[in-house]
Amino acid sequence: MLDTARGRPARGVPVVLSTRDRPRGEWRPHAEGTTDADGRCRGFPPLPAGTVEARLVFSTATHPVARVGEDDTPFFPEVAVAFAVTPGEHHHVPLLLAPHGYTVYRGSCGLLSTSDAADDAPS
Q1: Domains of the chain: total
Q2: pLDDT digit of tens for each residue in the chain (123 aa)?
Q3: Nearest-CA neighbor of 76 among 86, 89, 63, 87?
Q4: CATH number where 50 lies
Q5: Where is the sequence biased in composition, kind Basic and acidic residues (predicted)?
Q6: pTM for this one?
Q7: What is 41-52 written as a DSSP string?
Q8: Sheet containing strand 53-58, strands side by side
Q9: Is residue 117 part of a domain?
């Protein structure tokens, strides 16, 4: 996660990873973590076999970039990003957060992997 207002990684942001095994099915909590000094949430376990969609929920309310206005009310108290999972591939989903907007894209280096690719999962 990148704080685009400061041009620096967003450290200390809680992130929850959930999965589902069919489109529009129930979300199942899979792992929790916190962004590190590089703005990354490392160490998530491989996604369960059969996962077709994953969701990352970034709890941004406590990060300074989210607090705007005179009363510091967060405009985006959380950002939820759901995406399709391709078995055997790694998934890197960067979040760029600004006070009044955010951008998400599919990155090129994998941090999440399916259990089919557990041997290639990052440490």
Answers
A1: 1
A2: 999 989 999 999 999 999 999 988 999 999 999 999 999 998 899 999 999 999 999 999 888 776 666 677 788 899 999 999 988 888 889 999 998 899 999 987 655 555 543 333 333
A3: 63
A4: 2.60.40.180
A5: 19-41
A6: 0.83
A7: ---PPPBPTT--
A8: 28-34, 14-20, 53-58, 79-84
A9: no
Asked whether the beta carbons of 96 and 103 are under 8 A apart, the reply is yes
Give the alpha-carbon dihedral of 38, 39, 45, 47, to 10 degrees: -130
User: Does residue 27 belong to any structural domain of this protein?
Assistant: yes
63 phi and psi angles, rounded to 5 deg: -80, 140
Domain interval for residue 13: 2-112
d(CA 40, CA 11): 8
Q: Are 116 and 88 in contact (CB under 8 A)?
A: yes
Residue 91 token pair: 């998934």
Q: Which tokens go with 33?
A: 């973590």
- Please check whether residue 94 lies inside any domain of the structure: yes
Residue 39: φ, ψ to 5°: 80, 10
Q: Determine phi and psi for 32, rounding to 5 degrees.
A: -130, 150
Separation between Cα atoms, residue 69 and residue 123, nearest integer Å: 40
